[in-house]
Design goal:
alpha/beta, 281 residues
Length: 281
């Protein structure tokens, strides 16, 4: 199947709700006037420009955050994260197209509020579900919020469309998984799916994932993707314009993820063109 046929197939599957968009930090590259960190490195540099940490961990996000948490306070980490993501980039046309598609679940693995802002601009009910730090919410793995940011005591069995932010998000409550200890707590339970909301587990069954703006070049991103995909379809796609590393290539093969060798901006334009009949219907 050539690239154009594949893109049209993905567009048709999006329209029917069979595809789950899985968004990474590089989705921000499609936005203009970005005033938030767009990579883990940029976020680490943002934080360590304001708080002194040992030189050897200044560019390592989770370790730098852990140092600040240990030698300052957890509130210092949250404050730095809130400052870093205080601005909300205007959603790109592609963000809006995905928000207005037939998808019933979006997974967004970065901390910015861009996609939530996109969902707010299209018709339809939706809720947001975020991962929670055990250091702040011991025993509670996720928090749920209505579209207006109101906390929900629990997620209903049929919550409607869901934006799932497994690493947390700036809005509406400043929840973040960012330090080593945050991730250790989640990783000890994620194999048995405890931190993943039941509604997400139910929706993913038999569906395809479309990875956009993601890399799988570290163990953490691979682990989260692998566990969030569990018990879904056996066919997925990832837009990866750069040659995958050895470990990325192995991960793609293990998870039956077809690499789409195309710049994200080019792919987004092509997919929006293919989605147009559904978006205007």
């Amino acid at each position: 199947m050539n690239a154009q046929d594949l893109i049209h197939e993905i567009a048709r599957s999006l329209a029917t709700g069979a595809v789950i968009p899985y968004l990474g930090p590089d989705m921000l590259s499609l936005c203009s006037d970005i005033k938030v960190p767009g990579t883990p490195l940029a976020l680490a540099e943002n934080m360590t420009a304001k708080v002194s940490v040992p030189h050897k961990i200044r560019k390592r996000l989770t370790q730098a955050a852990q140092f600040i948490e240990n030698f300052k306070h957890r509130k210092s980490v949250v404050h730095l994260m809130n400052e870093a993501f205080a601005a909300t980039p205007a959603p790109s046309p592609f963000h809006l197209a995905l928000a207005g598609s037939g998808a019933g679940l979006w997974v967004d693995t970065w901390y910015d509020d861009t996609f939530a802002a996109g969902l707010a601009q299209v018709p339809g009910r939706w809720v947001q579900v975020q991962g929670l730090s055990q250091s702040e919410h011991f025993g509670q793995w996720t928090g749920a919020y209505a579209a207006d940011g109101t906390p929900l005591a629990e997620l209903s069995a049929d919550p409607g469309r869901m934006l799932y932010k497994p690493m947390g998000s700036h809005g509406p409550a400043g929840n973040y998984l960012v330090s080593d200890s945050d991730y250790v707590e989640v990783l000890t339970e994620i194999d048995i799916q405890t931190p993943i909301p039941a509604a997400v587990q139910a929706w993913r069954t038999g569906r395809n994932f479309l990875f956009l703006g993601c890399r799988f070049d570290d163990q953490l991103t691979r682990c989260f993707a692998r566990q969030i995909m569990k018990r879904s379809s056996d066919r997925h796609w990832a837009v990866l314009p750069n040659a995958p590393t050895r470990m990325e290539a192995r991960f793609l093969a293990e998870q039956n993820i077809t690499r789409i060798d195309m710049p994200l901006a080019q792919f987004s334009t092509a997919l929006m063109d293919a989605m147009q009949p559904a978006l205007t219907a």
